[in-house]
Amino acid sequence: EERSLAEYILTPTAKALAVQIYQGAFATQGPRAWSIIGPYGTGKSAFSLFLADLLCHAPAAHPSAQELQIHLEGSGKPFLPVLITGQRAQLSRELLHSLGESLTGIAPNVQQTAERLAQQAIVPDQEVIQVFQSASQAVQDAGYGGLLVILDEFGKFLEFAAQHPDEEDLFVLQHLAEMAERNSPPVVLVTVLHTAFVEYLH
Known about the structure:
Structural class: alpha/beta
Strand content: 5-15%
Helix content: 40-55%
Oligomer: single chain
Shape: globular
Order of helices and strands: HHEHHEHHHEHHE
């Protein structure tokens, strides 16, 4: 991951998107739920690493991220990253697993709740959202600015939902996006897709 980040070249389009996400993260009322869509080989996963560096490290490791941090106004404390690589599995469970891992050594009570819920056969959407809300408050209390949740290769979760309609409806993602847009402390949600959402409908 460090090598991928070091070799990443920030294009003007990626820079503009990074600025939008960064400003929304630290603004009182800014967009915090994003979906990045593009074909394989266009650098979306590398951009996700760059975004995590920009939002979660002070100072950032990548020179371009360092420059953005210096020149952008309204920057705050670094966010805690919750990085999830898509797989053919239940989205709620993977959200909770990854959140629990990210909270290691930071918020043991919330971590235990997330891990306990992840073991349940059925996890109500609202309980998932409540854990993320609790986590955002806990990480702020620990000195972070908020949570950065990145779902890379999100299409694999869509494929699982299509193959297991009785187990997964993905509605939790809408709840999480809505929570991210209004929650304080801030939660930034980014999904990464290799093709448009509608292309998965078949």
